[in-house]
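Subject: Aldo/keto reductase structure
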Amino acid sequence: MKNIHAAKTLHNGVQMPYLGLGVYKMTEEETSAESIRYAVNTGYRLIDTATLYENEHIVGRAVKESDVEREKLFITTKVWNTDQGYDAALRAFEQSMKKLDMDYLDLYMIHWPVQGKYKDTWRALERLYDEKAVKAIGVCNFQIHHLEELAAVSNEKPVVNQVELHPRLSQEPLREYCQEQNIAVEAWSPIARGRLLEEPTLKHLAEKHRKTPAQIILRWHLQNGVIVIPKSIHKDRIRENADVFDFELSMNEMNKISALNMDERYGPDPDNLNFS
């Protein structure tokens, strides 16, 4: 965890950067492309998009216009709920690749566990993995029971489970399960969409370490072994989010942040989401 290029070795041997750029809601063409290019040229190597975000084409363009070769980047996208099922997921993948204008993908994920469909969707992802169209396959928003049900019928287990995760929703049982199964955990909404920036404990630690509360939260994730993809279109924030490798939180400080957990979700609950 010494610099922005720190990477986690996934269970299939693929190296995935610990810090990346999330691009949710980044749909304004020029501003978004410029922000992604800036992040890549600043040192970011992981870019996380999705069909839902309607900006895969912007990511593809920004990557081509950046100063970094495609092979040095880690690009991820996701199959959306309405595209789930075996044949539909394969078609969705082809559409995503056309929009990204890339020859391969580093990580392809199921966006949500749509009941009655996610197992067939996973079979499609396994095929893409076997055919080497993708380097790794994973899931998002899967609870322990989803992962167990998937394991009972699959040949490959996910390399990554991307979930809502921040100090108010620390997901400790799920993280422990994933660690036991050698499934990497990735946090979306890692700083709780800015809701915790005035939290007294985080403000105190920020003052102590001469960092911002957002940097304290990101460092907490990283020291927990969690991959993070904070989203921003602002250059100063993109730089700030990457400036988290020159300090370390003590175990006591880590525990203080973990104690802020209230099992509080700001996004949808995977077990109570209307997928229709």
